[in-house]
Amino acid sequence: MTSVLHQLPDQPLRAPLVAIGNFDGVHLGHQTIIREVARRAREQGGTSVVLTFDPHPMSIVHPEAPHALLTGREQKIELLTSLDVAVVLVLPFTPEFARRSAEQFVREDLGERLGAREVHVGRNFKFGKGREGRVEDLERLGALRGIRVVVRPPVMMGDTMVSSSEIRNRLRDGDVEGAAAFLGRPYAADGMIEPGDGRGRALGYPTANFRPGVQMLPKIGIYAAVVDDLTSGERELDGVVYIGSQPTFGPHPVQGEVHLFGKDAVRYDHRLRVAFVGWIRGEERFADSKALIAQIERDVASARTALAERRGGAR
User: Fold this and answer.
1) Are 63 and 206 in contact, with CB atoms under 8 Å apart?
2) Could you give the CA distance from residue 18 to residue 5 in angstroms, rounded to a whole number?
3) Are strands 118-122 and 148-152 parallel, antiparallel or unpaired?
4) Residue pair 20/53 in contact by the 8 Å Cβ criterion
5) Residues 193/210, Cβ–Cβ less than 8 Å
6) CA of 17: how far to CAs of 36, 58, 126, 136, 138, in Å?
7) Separation between Cα atoms, residue 294 and residue 272, nearest integer Å
8) 40-52 pLDDT, tens digit each
9) pLDDT tens-digit series, residues 281-295
């Protein structure tokens, strides 16, 4: 069973092999690094460790520029613990931590406190105050402490490198299938259900309004979705999701609304995980409610078809 720690351990772990990174999205590239650490730890009788940070360093270093995340804290920890590692270490990234030099991080945190035997990172890894440290610095500083540094090559999809930035680009384009290929699973956003204006119910299609907090939403439009109710424990609920501003009814802020097939009521205190599995169409403005309802009927039919095809048969 994976242990989740939020500070460096008081006692050194047994021969730690450590994967370090922000791991936003826990995409296929991240998974490759972490699984290799887990494999080598089993082979050597050591302890596999994933070291990551919360909040994302960019939110501390550049608070003036909001950084949309692919995974929130809870989802990221869930994904990391699913990768067969012994320890997930989530260090608080504070302004004080951001001022620590690259040399301090390696000498004190990785060496003295963690006792790392090996460190595995991606080739673009940067660390220390002002991101001063590069992988070459990590190799040099690690050698002084007897820490072997392994720099992992990127995972490629054709000619494209799997990266969090590329996944964000795909989501901005509404290409949730492309994002899923890089993630190894559909992109999913977590959010609390919030009260709405009841317009969906009046149209015959009740919706749950959700806001994903720190996570980004894909491009405005309509998507087929699979939803987990994280509060009730209900899983794999089919639905259709609308990301938009309701232009038919005047200006509104962009928000997410999910209609769950065969489910008439949702609880405002529940938390949903909405997985976007297929693009249906872009946002449109309709002449009246009747035209909108007719389009919603077509959207629901399209989403049902997409979800049935995804599962390999009709539901």
Assistant:
1) no
2) 14
3) parallel
4) no
5) yes
6) 10, 26, 19, 19, 15
7) 27
8) 999 999 999 999 9
9) 998 888 888 888 999
